User: What shape does this take?
Amino acid sequence: MVEIITDEKDWGAIVRVDIPGKEAIYFAGFDKKEEQRRADIYRKLYDKCGSFDTLEVGNVPLKIACSGNPALAAYMYAVQRQPVQSIALHLKVSPSTVEQYLSDIRRGRR
Assistant: This one.
């Protein structure tokens, strides 16, 4: 079971995603809600695709690429920390479509 733990700080929050058998993944930033959202999306992407590599911006693991635009958007947002506008330009869709992809992934609809 993947577990998410949030630790609030004066300056923001650290959100830890614990995945059994793997190192914990940390999301830290000034906006607690944003980091929690990234962590939730990461967890759902992991649930959908299983383990995947963390690659630099411009590269995406094959299993993520083969899972479609919603998974690509989720990876670019949660793992590579790209802004929605940048993801939209890369995928050639509107920012609202990217937001819908992220919302669907987070809620387990894709």
The beta strands are 3-9, 12-18, 25-29. Residues 3-106 form one domain.
